[in-house]
UniProtKB/TrEMBL annotation:
Species classification: Bacteria, Pseudomonadati, Pseudomonadota, Alphaproteobacteria, Rhodobacterales
CC annotations in GO: plasma membrane; type II protein secretion system complex
Main location (coarse class): membrane
Tree of life domain: Bacteria
Family, similarity comment: Belongs to the GSP M family.
Organism: Loktanella salsilacus
Membrane-related topology note: Single-pass membrane protein
Assigned keywords, A-Z: Cell inner membrane, Cell membrane, Membrane, Protein transport, Transmembrane, Transmembrane helix, Transport
Record SUPFAM superfamilies: General secretion pathway protein M, EpsM (SSF103054)
Protein name in UniProt: Type II secretion system (T2SS), protein M
One example of a Gene Ontology biological process annotation: protein secretion by the type II secretion system
Cellular compartments annotated: Cell inner membrane
InterPro entries assigned to the protein according to its UniProt record, in alphabetical order: T2SS_GspM, T2SS_M_periplasmic_sf
Length: 152
């Protein structure tokens, strides 16, 4: 190795001595630091979701009495659309189904849809009669098909 290094010109030696540490630092950053930070961010997201769900469960245990919701005057489609907009969800499809409404959502965060359903029940007098959830490739994302009905 020394013989090979000594056979290089001075310019080649300087370039080699300068580039090897940079290449090692880049490799450590790209293949060690970046994956660790991505894993850390994913775990922090999981912790935040857990805290959100556990605080919601604690609130339900503290006050299990149902809240009386006044009789709605708007059609169910209007109330569902308003509640989805306030929750930041984009509805893909709305279909009337007798007195109810079938709703389809794509690629939504699980915790967002759970909070949206509880908000509809508490504030818009809409309850979930049936639900079908499908896991999506993105972490925490789902597709949902809901059958919603008035709470009368």
């Amino acid at each position: 190795m020394t013989r090979w290094f000594n056979s290089l010109t001075m310019r080649e030696r300087v370039l080699l001595v300068g580039l090897v540490p940079l290449a090692v630092m880049f490799g450590l950053f790209q293949f060690a630091w970046v994956p660790l930070q991505q894993t850390r961010a994913a775990h922090l997201t999981d912790i935040a979701a857990y805290r959100l769900v556990s605080s919601a469960a604690a609130r339900l245990q503290a006050d299990p009495a149902p809240i009386a919701v006044p009789a709605p005057t708007d059609p169910i489609a209007t109330r569902v659309t308003q509640s989805a907009e306030s929750a930041g969800l984009q509805l893909r499809r709305l279909e009337p189904d007798g007195t109810g409404l079938r709703v389809t959502l794509d690629e939504v965060p699980f915790q967002s849809i759970m909070l949206w359903m509880s908000d509809m029940e508490a504030n818009f007098a809409v309850r979930v009669a049936a639900i079908e959830l499908d896991r999506r490739p993105a972490p925490g994302a789902i597709s949902a098909r809901l059958l919603l009905e008035d709470m009368q």
